Amino acid sequence: MSPEKRPTARRASRRGPANGDMHRRVVSPFLSGIVLALLLLAPAYLLPENEEGGHGPREYVPHPAQVITDDLGRPFPLPAATPERIVSMAPNVTEILFALGLGDRVVGVTRFCDYPPETRSIPKIGGLVDPNIEIIQSLEPDLVIAFRGNPLRLVDRIRKLGLPVFVLDIGEGLEALSPLIERIGRVTRTERRAAGVAGLLRGRLEASDAALRDGLSKPKVFVLLYGQGLWTCGGQSYVNDLIGRAGGTNVASLLPKKWALYKREQIIKDDPDVVFILARTVGDFTSGRDRLLRMPGIEGVAAARSGRIFELDENAASRFGPRLVDVLERMAALLHPDRFGGRR
Amino acid sequence: MTRKAGRRVFWAVSLFLCLAGFLISLLTGPVRTTPGDFLRFVQNPDRVHSAIFVDLRLSRAVLAFLVGAALALSGAILQGYFRNPMADPFVVGVSSGASLGAVLATALGFEAAAFGFSGPGLLAFISGLGIVSLVYALSLRRGGFKLETILLTGIAAGALASALTSFFLFMRSDSYDQAVFWLLGSFQLAEWGQVATIAPWIVLCLLASVWLARDMDLLALGDETAQALGSPVRRVRKVFLAMSALLAALSVAVSGVIGFVGLVVPHWVRLLIGPSHRSLFVSSALAGGTFLLYCDLLARNLLPAELPIGVITAAVGAPFFLYLLHKKR
């Protein structure tokens, strides 16, 4: 250090002769500090990244030949057999796991997972953006299924613990539902059951499409999310797709968002033929409807005059899972009672 | 009590609290663990307990301690720098600038990790330092250097950054949940990689600030006096400003914005051990680290769901600050 220090100090004192002595005190620690910093910084980059390797998951034995990529494009070794302890980080994933008959292997769910009712007794790992990593680790899962709405940083943190995490993209339209189920079936090695469930849903979608084919009027639909303010679904929401497939036109489909606040004046101008209110309970639905009808100007809207204001199950409609097809069928029957013979 | 004895008591109590804090951090969490579990783990480590004790709890405690130390040191430096007891990393705009960067990254979906930081962390770091440089450059333009100018410029730039942050939050309301992490801070995602990234810099800044502490003492007499007494005032000021900004930006990059630590802890320490900067810097770092360690304990154990740590530091810090203000009168 010292042979390096002297010339620095001399240069400094030449620049500022008045207080050169002090400059040595300031400059040399600053320069040597930078050198020291570079040395000290090295460990951060040399630290082993035990993402895939290191103390990897021991409980499950990956099939050597089968490595698929998850929806983040990361390699994921397929387990040889159906995992025994699955943690689901999203309500729709939980729902699909149950639909695949894996309910008894789900050991952890989010606090929003409430369907099917059996999920209530399963340990909660926290929410979608704030799951507790320590709880997840303590459940000793051999498969963690996350989705893109979980913060990526958090997913990476779980992966660094050596837990196998599979990240799924939630689709934009109903078309993506069957592939999603098949993908979950693949990663849980229940491919056959998943194909069955997905095929059934596809069949129902096709049946509904067939009933609504040709020469159809497309009533204008306004969807209201029960709660404060006029929240509705924009063009990027799969609910928008749901309305289209059910033979309606979403008045808010031009909004480039998933969910957006709507203006009362705009509803009056749009003059929707049908209003769907997404509500959890009948009480919520009636109070939402009454609040909407009390708004000045709304009483003149077509839906209000004809009374075509209907409830949709918010719980089912807000999750990209099998129950979306139930919602679709209900919507289609309400929009086009003639085509469905007043079934509902 | 003499000052020296007071200092000794302070050190003993802080060290004890610090060690106790680490121990409690190891033993508490959402998964119930007893001291017996811990002893059994030490003798015979298994994978799950190693993940819980070492990878999750210890890394988190160490990171909380480091960030607390960095914030308190940054605050202590800035209070000396501005000769103003109200100074903290918010006044030069670092914190607001960094949260703007983080929220922008979240809103744009910029998540790729680099240099040991996550995407938002990296952008927070860059924009935090960027805004300080901007504030500094703006304050220098009009000829001489005035403390008031940099203080006011910093506050204005911070307000602008906050406004932009709110704007991006409003535009991308769906990223709000994730933005809360950056705006109120959390150690939930702590890992050893982050510790290794920030620890060397914090140690370095602490050493450098202790080295230059006497110059900071001289600054308290006024810039002219300090210059006359042989302190290279402008250079010292530059180094201290850079260090405080670096410390604050590093903290935000790993844990989000955590308020009040930088403001309150140096005051508390100054009351107990006096204004000499050498011991003030070291003691502030120790006390700040310990303070944040306990705040994090509260944040993760108070409720079933984790609280953002900024809520705790402000809830503890604000009443204490009020108490200090009124005691002074």
Largest sheet of chain B: none
Specify the CATH class of chain B.
Mainly Alpha
Shape of chain B: globular
The N- to C-terminal Cα distance of chain B equals 22 Å
Folded structure, characterized:
The complex is a heterodimer of chains A (344) and B (329). By secondary structure, chain A is of the alpha/beta class. Chain A folds into three domains: 2-46; 62-202, Nitrogenase molybdenum iron protein domain (Rossmann fold); 217-335, Rossmann fold (3-Layer(aba) Sandwich). In chain A, 43% of the residues lie in helices and 15% in strands. Chain A is built from 13 helices and twelve strands. Chain A has helices at 2-15, 20-46, 91-99, 133-138, 152-160, 177-187, 191-211, 238-245, 264-270, 282-294, 302-306, 314-317, 323-335, and strands at residues 62-69, 75-79, 86-88, 106-108, 143-147, 165-168, 220-225, 231-233, 249-250, 259-261, 274-279, 309-313. In chain A, the strands form four sheets. Chain A has a four-stranded parallel beta sheet with strand order 4-3-5-6, with helices on both faces. In chain A, strands 9-7-11-12 form a four-stranded parallel beta sheet, sandwiched between helices. In chain A, strands 1-2 form a two-stranded antiparallel ribbon. In chain A, helix 1 crosses helix 2. The longest helix of chain A is centred in the N-terminal third of the chain and has 27 residues, at 20-46. Chain A is globular and about 60 Å long. Chain B starts with a helix and ends with a helix. Chain B contains 14 helices and no strands. Chain B has one domain: ABC transporter involved in vitamin B12 uptake, BtuC (Orthogonal Bundle), CATH 1.10.3470. Chain B has helices at residues 3-27, 35-43, 47-82, 94-108, 119-141, 147-171, 176-184, 192-211, 213-219, 223-228, 233-255, 261-273, 277-301, 309-328. Chain B is mostly helical and 329 residues long. The mean pLDDT of chain B is 85. The interface between A and B is large, with 46 and 44 residues.
